[in-house]
Specification:
Blueprint lengths: L22 E5 L3 H7 L4 H22 L3 E8 L7 H17 L1 H6 L2 E6 L7 H14 L5 E9 L1 H17 L10 H5 L12 E4 L18 E4 L9 H12 L22
Parallel strand pairs: 1-2, 1-5, 2-4, 3-4, 5-6
Helix pairs in contact: 1-2, 2-3, 3-5
Length: 262
């Protein structure tokens, strides 16, 4: 397990508490490259990446970030070698079994978004149990995007709305961006304020395509296994230096248009 350092250890990275992002989402990339650079098996990179997950969740909780979404396993990741997928599922299963006490102690709710029906039954069972056990926690929500794809999310939402129209429960004219937002897998979560991608890649990789319309993007060369508290703080400092306009001339006082509906 990785150990989390108190954020007071990083005094040089001063933050404005009044301008913290409400929702941070992270594309956790670079586990394999981290391992390959050290002559290790890719599995060692994934193990080390789990420690970064623990450290970042702890840091976000200490900062008072209400929502954190981690892109843990994409719908495209099923195409990876079977042995690697099996290892990732075992690692996820172990995380779900061992982190319940930590999440309860820190008052963190855990949820999953994505096509979780594709996950192995032991993982689904552990995930359901953790969601149920942490459901009453209200200091922070951590969402794991598992078997998730942004296009798939939109397609599934459109199918749900089409069925509602077909059943006569809504009309086509009632479908607007708020209704679409509330039909996606992330319903109930505010749109992300800040998206972080590690490893130097500068693309979205089919993640939260509808939800990040006005999200600030932050790319770092740091590989995910090396991404800890200091890197998170650097990303938030960069976020606070930006002026968010949401398509207008002047920045709105608080939240994005979509967030008002959530």
């Amino acid at each position: 397990m990785g150990t989390s350092l108190p954020l007071s250890e990083f005094p040089a990275l001063s933050l404005d508490p009044a301008r913290l992002p409400r929702h941070i989402t992270i594309v956790m990339d670079g586990n394999g490259r981290w391992a390959e650079q050290r002559g290790l098996a890719r599995s060692e990179g994934h193990r080390r990446g789990k420690d970064s997950v623990i450290a970042v969740v702890e840091a976000a909780r200490e900062l008072g970030i209400p929502y954190l979404t981690l892109f843990a396993f994409s719908s495209e990741n099923w195409q990876r070698p079977r042995a690697e997928v099996s290892f990732l599922m075992r690692l996820l299963h172990r995380y779900l079994l061992t982190e319940t006490k930590r999440l309860m102690r820190r008052n963190i709710r855990l949820i999953a978004v994505g096509d979780t029906d594709r996950l192995p039954e032991p993982v689904r069972r552990a995930l359901r149990q953790m969601e149920e056990v942490t459901a009453g926690n209200d200091a922070m929500t951590t969402a794991l995007a598992l078997s998730y794809g942004g296009r798939q999310d939109i397609v599934m939402a459109m199918r749900r709305l089409a069925r509602e129209v077909q059943a006569g429960r809504i009309t086509p004219e009632q479908i607007d961006e708020h209704l679409v937002s509330n039909t996606l897998a992330t319903a109930g979560l505010p749109d992300p304020d800040l998206l972080i991608r590690t490893s130097g890649e500068q693309r979205i990789s089919n993640f939260l395509l509808f939800q990040i319309a006005y999200t600030e993007l932050y790319f770092t060369d740091t590989l995910w296994p090396d991404f800890r508290e200091r890197e998170l703080l650097k990303a938030i400092v960069a976020y606070q230096l930006r002026e968010r306009r949401f398509g207008a001339i002047d920045s709105p006082p608080d939240h994005s248009p979509l967030r008002a509906a959530n």
